[in-house]
Amino acid sequence: MRSLALVFCWTSFSALSVSLSASSSDDQFNVNGKVLELTDSNFDSAISTFDCIFVDFYAPWCGHCKRLNPELDAAAPVLAKLKKPIVIAKLNADKYSRLARKLEIDAFPTLMLYNHGVPMEYYGPRKADLLVRYLKKFVASDVAVLESDAAVKDFVEDAGTFFPVFIGFGLNESLITALGAKYKKKAWFAVAKDISEDVMVSYDFDKAPALIAKHPSYNERSVFYGPFEDGFLEDFVKQNFLPLVLPINQDTLKLLKDDERKMVLTIVEDETHESLGKLIKALRAAAYANRDLVFGYVGVEQFEEFADSFHADKKAKLPKIVVWDGDEEYDEVNGIETISHEEDHLTQVSRFLEGYREGRTEKKRIKGPSLMGFINSMIGIRSVYIIVFLVAVIMMLRSLGQVEEPARARTSEAACERVDQTTSVSQGETSEHKPRDKED
C-alpha cells in the first residue's frame, strides 16, 4: 500500500509539474495575435513551444526591417486564427549577436520559418496579404481532396501564384499522398473526384486518370497520362517544379539548387525587348521535348554579373546559347554559339541541341563564381564587422582624438543606402522579396 501511495503521489506531482510547465510556457508567450519579441534567453523555448513559428531576425537601424514591421503586424493576427496557427516573432539580431552568429544570421532582415523545430529560410513576398497566403502552404494538408468543380476552382485560387500546383484527376489518392508529404515545401497537391467535362476542357486534358501540373506565375500547364508507377510519376513532378523556360535572377537561381539537370542557357541583351517573345516560344517548344534539361534565359541588362561569367556582355554577339552544368563549366556547340534573328529560332535551337547530343562541343570554364557562389554572393555581417573595425581605426587616426560618430552607424547607413539604390523590383508577385533585399 505504501508503494502504491508513493506511486500515486509521484504521478500527481508529475502531472502538477507538467501543468505548471505548460502554464509557465503560456505565461512566457502571450499568444494574442501580436508579434512576439524574442531574446537569447527564450528563443529555444519559443521554437520548441510552437509547431510553426515565423521569425524575423532584424536590426534596429535596417531600413528594410523597418518597412517590414507593419506588414508583420498586419499578418500576425490572421495567421494566429488559422486552424493550425502560425506565430510571428522577431529577434534583434544586432543586440543578441552571439545567438545570431550561432544561427549563421549574416544579413538583415533574415526571415526563417521553423516547422516543428526544422528551420527553412523564407524568400517569399513581404506584403501582409501575400505573406499570409504563402505561409498557409506550410500548415495545409499534404494532399487536398476536391469533390466538385467549385472545389477545384477554389483550391487553385487559394494556392496563389508562388508554388506549382499538381492535381490528379481520377487518380488514386494513395499515389499522390507520398509525393505530397515529400514535396510539401515545393508545391500544392490535390486529387479531384466527380469533375465535369468543363474542367477537363479548361485544364486541356481529354481522359483520366491524368496528373495536371500548373504554374500560375508563368501561365503554363503540363499533362501526364502515365505510367504512374516505377518512379515515372515522381519524375514528372520533379521536372515540373520549374517552368519550361526559367528567367534567371537571384531568386530563381535558388530554385536550381536541388535540380541535377544541366541548363540550356540563352543570354540576351535585354529581357524586356519585344523580340524576346519569339525566342522564348522556341525555347519552350524545345524544353517540352527535352525534359532531361532545364531551359533558362538571362538578360545582360538585368543580371550583368551572371551573364559576364559566360563571357557574354553588351559588346558580345547575342543571343548566346550554352549548356551550363550548374557549377563551373559550360559547353558551347561548335558553329552554333549564337542565335540569329534572321533564321527561324526553333530550327536553330533544335540544331544546337542536336550538336550538343552528338558531342560537337567545346568545354569552357565560367569567369565568376559557381551557382552556390552566386547564391552566397551577398556580403555577410562578419565582413561588415571587419569593415567597421577598419573604418573605425582609420577615422581614429585621422581625427587625432576628435569625437566622431560611431563608425558602425555610418557603415550601417551606407549599407542601407547602397541596398536601396541597387535593389530593383521585377514584375509579378514573386518580386516582393529577393535575396538582395537584405541589409548587412
List keywords for this structure.
single chain; 440 residues; alpha/beta; Glutaredoxin; 4 domains; six-stranded mixed beta sheet; five-stranded mixed beta sheet; 41% helix; flat; transmembrane; signal; redox-active center; membrane; Thioredoxin domain-containing protein
Strand order of the largest sheet: 11-13-12-14-15-16
CATH architecture of the largest domain: 3-Layer(aba) Sandwich
Total separate domains = 4
Uncertain spans? 1-26, 378-384, 402-436
Strand content bin: 15-25%
Output the CATH topology of the largest domain. Glutaredoxin
Rg of Cα set: 26 Å
Main β sheet profile = 6 strands, mixed
Gap between N and C termini: 67 Å
**Structural class by sheet pairing and helices:** alpha/beta
How many DSSP H or I helices? 16
Mean pLDDT over the residues? 82
CATH superfamily of the largest domain: Glutaredoxin
Helix coverage percent: 40-55%
Structure description:
The chain has 440 residues and is an alpha/beta fold. It folds into four domains: 20-137, Glutaredoxin; 141-239, Glutaredoxin; 245-374, 3-Layer(aba) Sandwich (Glutaredoxin); 380-432, no CATH class. The chain has helices at 2-28, 43-49, 63-80, 97-102, 128-135, 149-159, 173-182, 197-202, 232-239, 250-255, 276-289, 304-308, 345-357, 371-375, 381-399, 407-422, and strands at 36-38, 52-58, 87-92, 110-115, 118-121, 144-146, 165-169, 188-192, 210-215, 220-224, 245-247, 263-268, 294-299, 320-324, 329-333, 361-365. The protein has a six-stranded mixed beta sheet. Helix 11 crosses helix 13 (345-357) and helix 15 (381-399) crosses helix 16. The radius of gyration is 26 Å and the shape is flat. It starts with a helix and ends in an 18-residue tail after the last helix.
